[in-house]
Amino acid sequence: MKHLLNLLAAVALLVWGTQLVRTGILRVFGASLRQLIAHSVRTPLAAALSGVGVTALVQSSTATALIVSAFVGQGLMGLAAALAVMLGADVGTSAMAVLFSLDLSWLSPLFIFVGVVLYVSRQDTTAGRVGRVCIGLGLMLLALRLINDSATELTRSETVRTLLGALTSDIMLEITVGAILSIVSYSSLATVLLTATLVGPGGVPAIVGLGLVVGANLGSGLLAVITTMRSSVETRQVPLGNLIFKILGVIVMAPLAAPWLLYARPHIPSDAALVVLYHLVFNVVMALVCIAFTKPVASLVERLLPREQANPTDTRPRHLDNSALATPSLAISCAAREALHLADVVETMLQGIHTVIRTADLKLSQDLRKLDDTVDGLYSDIKYYMTKISREALDEREGRRWADIMGFTINMEQVGDIIERILIDIEDKKIKRGLKFSEAGMEEINDLHARLLDNLRLAMSVFLNGTVRDAKKLLEEKTRFRELERDYAAAHLVRLQDRSVPSMETSSLHIDLISDFKRINSLLCSVAYSVLEHDNALAPKRPHAGSGAA
């Protein structure tokens, strides 16, 4: 019983070590790895090689699948290229399994010591995150040593040998067990290493180990599908295509396990090496054969999971991919894209104001007011999604981006509320009373409304690109808008003095409308302040940088 508990504890330590390495690598090199993948999809071979490199670093093909799936969901990568990346990712995982199957336990104390020193002394820095990776590597090597020792003790028992020997009769059972272990441990690498270590002392027969490895390969594909189950259609397409390749691989490679054992064993005396090399050959052969079929499989997946037609006023979040939360920097990108989706809905409402004023269309006004519920829903979804992003995993730049997204989203929600109140006023004070603005007053409203739309689009550009030049232009437009609001308010008072009947009838609405336009403009322009503050480009004296009206 003691040796069994030691084995289970060592397996848990191995899984925990792989988790530490994966999260640490993603926190340190997450942005660079995403850029590597995004810039290497020009050819299938380059995409596959990028998958090998990235997965060798993060030690998880599932993590690579989540990154690539998010890229496809955001429209940054084609499905065929993503499938090529995943073929390479499987090769990367198997290559790391070969490396860790070597006896590197002597490095474990060094990795743990260096890792703890770095992590404790500089926890919130890049060095501290590298220390986290070192701790994970040390724990993995230590766990493999403990698994080997525990397995050696366990296999001395005849009862255990008998139980293990019962597995040799059913390849489907072995594949099923391997897949379940891979899903439960959230790592096919950990499952392969565990299998190789158990085969080493002679406890688990080599043929059983090969079946477990095939199952682990299948399990990693199932795990990615399960993880992205509630994501968008585009995001789910990559794991499904990868799973199709893995199922084909199981069908082809499972019957070849016995011939591999027969012909490779004379040249590879170690059973553990037989297992990890079979895993490597399995994935290399699959990558070489299947890379030519990424486009046909992508077409098949797109038929099985067709993309939905985009709707600019869609009430559902489009880009909040929960699977991306495992990579906080990637989740930040998802939230930013969703914030722009929110701004698109606000733009639809803002454009509609002018149509309602001109046409007195009460039905359109009511439909536009309903969009405020969409704005509120998207705002809540983004806010909740942002709170699930680990702030401690973000570097300084990503932390600023997190704050910028929250500020932009809050401002868009407030703009939606103001537009709703404007529409209610137009209905009550103009449409239902059958009134019209004066010709001069309508020209002023047209001018301010056109400027407001231009500034909204400029604000979205500043939020997306962070360009200092555009940020300065946005603040200049804020100053100009404020001056125009004062001028038009004064001009309206002159018309009242001239006893203009349309101006007198719509005076309250006119003044409130241009004042609300100014408040909206101030909220839009506030996105410029964080860009200019970061670049020290703000003038010494400037308007208040809050989110309220100026």
From TrEMBL:
Transmembrane domains' residue ranges: 36-58, 65-89, 95-118, 171-194, 206-231, 243-263, 275-294
Main location class: membrane
Keyword field contains Cell membrane: yes
GO cellular-component term (any): plasma membrane
Matching SUPFAM superfamilies: PhoU-like (SSF109755)
Domain spans labelled PhoU: 341-423
Pfam families: Na_Pi_cotrans, PhoU
Location within or outside the cell: Cell membrane
Molecular function via GO: sodium:phosphate symporter activity
Membrane topology: Multi-pass membrane protein
NCBIfam families for the chain: Na_Pi_symport, NaPi_cotrn_rel
Annotated protein name in UniProt: Na/Pi cotransporter family protein
Species the sequence originates in: Simplicispira hankyongi
